[in-house]
Every structure is written in C-alpha cells, then in structure tokens.
Amino acid sequence: MAMSCPPQKPDVPDSKVSQILRDYFGCSLINVKRLDGYDDFSAHVTFTKQDSSGKTVQQGVIKILGQTTLSNMNSRNLLVCGFLEHLCNAGLPFSRPFRLSDGTLNPPTIQLDHPEQEACQGHYVHLLSYVEGVPLSMLDFHYDGYFLQKIGSLAARMHSVALTHPTHIPERVKSPWYLVDVELLLDRIYAVNLSAEDVSLSLRAVKDFTSCLSRHKYTESILHGDLKGDNIIMKVDKRSSPSLSGVIDFADLVKGPVVIDIAVFAVAVWIVNWPPTQSLLQIISEVLAGYTETSDALPLTALDRELLYHAIPARCVQHLVMCRYDALHDPDNVSYLLSEDVYMLGALREFYETCGKDSDLFISLHKHTTYS
C-alpha cells in the first residue's frame, strides 16, 4: 500500500533554500532565518535579485508546504497565487507572491528526502513578499473600537475585490478545518475527551450552524479563512502605538459566506484575555460597523447576521475539537495545539450563557459603536 506524505513539517537546510531561490526565482540568498510554523517550513529570507532597476536587496518569506497528496493542488496553488496578486494590485496590504524566473506564478514542486515515504508527490514552494512587523498575537495589544473597525473594513474590501477576480478558486477537498465543512466534526466530538455537557453544547453548535447554512443563500465571496492574530502583522514603533502592517497566510482561501471571516476574527479577539475583558457583542458590533460602512462593502442581510450568530459557537467547537484531535495524533506539538484549549472551551460555554437564546441580538448590532 502506498504511504502518504509525512505529517511533520519539512526539514530544509539553508543550502536547499539557497538552491530553490537560485533555480526557480533567480535570487541569490544572503541570509535565512527560520520562522515558527506547525506543518509547513517557513523562513524569512534576504536575497539579491536582478530587476529593471539593477540588482537590489529584497526580503521575503519562503514557505515549503508540509505535504502534497492532492491531485488538484497544482491548479489550486496557481490560482491562489493569481488571486493573491490580484488583491495586492488593488492596494490591499497582503503578502504578494513572487513570480518565477520565467515570469509565471506557478509554484514549483520540490522533492525532499523521505526514505520511508516514497509515495510523496513533493512539496510546493511559495516565495512571498515580507510583511514587516510582528504578529498581533505576540503583542500586549488593546483591541479598541478603531482597530476592530479597521479589520472589519479590510475584510469588506477583500471580499469586494475578490469578486472582481476573473477566475474562481478551484474546488477543494472537504476538511473540518474549513468552517463551511464543520459537519465533518460530528464524529470527532466524541473522540476528544469532552464532558457530557460540553459534548451536548458542541453538537448543538455544529448542528445549528450547518442547518442554518443549508436553509438560505448568503452573501458570499472568497474568504481568508483564518483571520486571527497570528496572521495579522503589526508595525511596532517605540514612538507610537502599533499599527496594521498587513495580513499573511492565505493557505485556507475558500468560497463561502463572508460572515465566516468576521466570526473567526471575533472569536480570536474574544479569547485574547480570559475571562474576557470585552463583550462579544461589542467586539462584533465594532467589526460589523467597519465592514458595513466601507464604501464598496457587500451588503449584509438579516440572514447573514443570523448565520454569524451560529458561526461564533461553531468556530469555538471547530478550533477546540480539531486541535484536541490533532494533538492525539501529533504528541510532539501538543503544547502548540492546545495553547488556546481552555479559552475556546470557556468561550463556547460563555456564548450559550450570555447570548445563546437570542439570535436577534446579532441582527441589530453596530448601531451604537464607539468610533462611528
């Protein structure tokens, strides 16, 4: 029986990074600094590159994906790169993919030594522009109304610009890491050592969300899919407060209801301090204000807001169950996978205690915001 690719992230020596940059992107490596990551190899690289203005020193991030077994990954990776370039051309502060030496965006595939995993189809390589700063999750940062509205506005612009892209992101393989596929969690909920009460809440959250998702048509676009503090980069200046630098990690791009990006971000903000120092309703109210008051925002209906209500606990369950499930099969990364476990469990319980009986609360949100 053919074996799948190794689940661990690739081990890539500096000499291999240098070779990849030279052979595929026409760059000469100066320095490489590894970055934290779960299943992909990521490194900050400084290199020289010849362009129309001569040889220049540039910075980027090289990502080598942890495993490649899907037959449609090549076309998906190419279209994701084209889509990301489209967003950057519209002025959005995202990491831009570098084109290869031949002028194309098609991510190269490399082979690494996996003696016991001969069936591995290879690892895709992405070279992206460097978004200067530090992840928001690493800062002691106060999420005031102004910042929450700014992220809401950024999401609105992304969703709007996404619909002007001439091609579609190809069909993906279903995964419980996509919130639109959260029904795949139902069997795993019983396998991750939750109390009977928490199993009941988790089943309720997943079933309510999937039922709501199937009943109506919602405002859709291409979603970031993982809009959280790890992927929001901030400029840090000792003379002023941290400011938004850009957004990274578009590996989870997927078509779906736009409120899913809002839900993922709102939950990430809500659990930053636990017990929470901010009301969930206030967080969502500010994000929605920034979203809906952006000039080219897609309209959000009462049905969208009802789905947002159900997406909040579904996101808590998704993160809680998937991280526990992966930790059972990946003991080397338990501390990373379970770093937010207690907060997600607390958020799930808190949601149903404070606003779990009234979805109408979400329909009228953002009428009274701090920064209007």
UniProtKB/TrEMBL annotation:
<comment type="function">
    <text>Catalyzes the GTP-dependent phosphorylation of 5-hydroxy-L-lysine.</text>
</comment>
<feature type="domain" description="Aminoglycoside phosphotransferase">
    <location>
        <begin position="83"/>
        <end position="278"/>
    </location>
</feature>
<keyword id="KW-0418">Kinase</keyword>
<dbReference type="GO" id="GO:0047992">
    <property type="term" value="F:hydroxylysine kinase activity"/>
</dbReference>
<dbReference type="InterPro" id="IPR011009">
    <property type="entry name" value="Kinase-like_dom_sf"/>
</dbReference>
<dbReference type="Pfam" id="PF01636">
    <property type="entry name" value="APH"/>
</dbReference>
<comment type="similarity">
    <text>Belongs to the aminoglycoside phosphotransferase family.</text>
</comment>
<keyword id="KW-0963">Cytoplasm</keyword>
<protein>
    <recommendedName>
        <fullName>Hydroxylysine kinase</fullName>
        <ecNumber>2.7.1.81</ecNumber>
    </recommendedName>
</protein>
<dbReference type="InterPro" id="IPR050249">
    <property type="entry name" value="Pseudomonas-type_ThrB"/>
</dbReference>
<dbReference type="GO" id="GO:0005737">
    <property type="term" value="C:cytoplasm"/>
</dbReference>
<dbReference type="InterPro" id="IPR002575">
    <property type="entry name" value="Aminoglycoside_PTrfase"/>
</dbReference>
<keyword id="KW-0808">Transferase</keyword>
